[in-house]
């Protein structure tokens, strides 16, 4: 372990990782959330630390222990809180890996008290769009090497390539979700897409996938910024 810390491909590199879901509060007892256990992002944080990186993990609400070797963990709840933490940390990071399942919308207002049922009348929630964290980091003057994730239920590669371009990313890790794949599972399959092409990592343990992802990120990062 000590040797890998000293000689790893990301030795001395500052890696920021966001992981887990975000919870958008409706009232003091309810929220809108995403289906994310945080396992993939935490596995990526563990792999980055094992590769020698100085890891800062910004985490939504999850039931996971901080991986060994992670230097710092900042816990957040909402997309706005994740945005604030990531934008602050990104300025001092060399690589940002956005593995979080960020809520796209939040309730326009948070009720002060627990909302009550209304005799069978339907309830309509008004939602406001959350800021795009990755796009904001990409717009920084000196933006870090950017890696996004795209979880899609169909047309995975097409949507992922579109996000790579639209969000000005260096790499995107795309995966098929739904039908028992992806969320809350121990294993996963990923297609890594960057300007050099694409590489499909077959379905395996999230820990192994994370190690392969970190290896490709390290290679591309050093190729781009020698
Ligand atoms: N992401 C982000 N900020 C948001 C929403 C998403 O930084 N407000 C990041 C995710 O962490 C992920 C990438 O953007 O790395 C793609 O997320 P995804 O939900 O697939 O893309 P969206 O742009 O939100 O598009 P849509 O949900 O409509 O497919
Ligand atoms: Ca989204």
UniProtKB/TrEMBL annotation:
Its EC number is 4.1.1.36, 6.3.2.5. Its cofactor is FMN; Mg(2+). It comes from the Bacteria. Binds 1 FMN per subunit. It catalyses: (R)-4'-phosphopantothenate + L-cysteine + CTP = N-[(R)-4-phosphopantothenoyl]-L-cysteine + CMP + diphosphate + H(+); N-[(R)-4-phosphopantothenoyl]-L-cysteine + H(+) = (R)-4'-phosphopantetheine + CO2. Signal peptide: none annotated. GO terms for biological process: coenzyme A biosynthetic process; pantothenate catabolic process. Keywords: Decarboxylase, Flavoprotein, FMN, Ligase, Lyase, Magnesium, Metal-binding, Multifunctional enzyme. Residues 10-219 form the DNA/pantothenate metabolism flavoprotein C-terminal domain. CTP binds at residues 104, 114, 131-134, 149, 163, 167. Residues 15-226 are annotated as: Phosphopantothenate--cysteine ligase. One of its GO terms (molecular function) is phosphopantothenoylcysteine decarboxylase activity. Pathway: Cofactor biosynthesis; coenzyme A biosynthesis; CoA from (R)-pantothenate: step 3/5; Cofactor biosynthesis; coenzyme A biosynthesis; CoA from (R)-pantothenate: step 2/5. GO terms for cellular component: phosphopantothenoylcysteine decarboxylase complex. In the C-terminal section; belongs to the PPC synthetase family. Catalyzes two sequential steps in the biosynthesis of coenzyme A. In the first step cysteine is conjugated to 4'-phosphopantothenate to form 4-phosphopantothenoylcysteine. In the second step the latter compound is decarboxylated to form 4'-phosphopantotheine. Catalyzes two steps in the biosynthesis of coenzyme A. In the first step cysteine is conjugated to 4'-phosphopantothenate to form 4-phosphopantothenoylcysteine, in the latter compound is decarboxylated to form 4'-phosphopantotheine. This is Coenzyme A biosynthesis bifunctional protein CoaBC. The chain holds residues 176 to 401 of 405 of the full protein.
């Amino acid at each position: 372990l000590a040797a890998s810390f000293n000689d790893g491909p990301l030795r001395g590199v500052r890696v920021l990782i966001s992981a887990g879901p975000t919870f958008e509060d409706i009232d003091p007892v309810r929220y809108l959330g995403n289906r994310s256990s945080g396992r993939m992002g935490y596995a990526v944080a563990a792999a980055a630390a094992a590769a020698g990186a100085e890891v800062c993990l910004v985490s939504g609400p999850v039931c996971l222990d901080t991986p060994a070797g992670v230097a710092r963990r900042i816990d957040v709840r909402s997309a706005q809180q994740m945005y604030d933490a990531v934008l602050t940390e990104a300025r001092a990071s060399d690589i940002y890996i956005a593995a979080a399942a960020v809520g796209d919308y939040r309730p326009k207002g948070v009720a002060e008290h627990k909302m009550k049922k209304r005799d069978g009348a339907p309830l309509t929630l008004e939602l406001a769009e959350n800021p795009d964290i990755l796009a904001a980091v990409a717009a920084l003057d000196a933006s870090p090497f950017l890696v996004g994730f795209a979880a899609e239920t169909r047309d995975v590669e097409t949507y992922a390539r579109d996000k790579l371009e639209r969000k000005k990313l260096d790499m995107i890790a795309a995966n098929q979700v739904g039908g028992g794949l992806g969320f809350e599972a121990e294993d996963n399959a990923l297609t890594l897409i960057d300007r050099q092409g694409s590489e499909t990592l077959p379905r395996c343990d999230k820990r192994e996938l994370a190690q392969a992802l970190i290896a490709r990120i390290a290679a591309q990062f050093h190729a781009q910024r020698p």
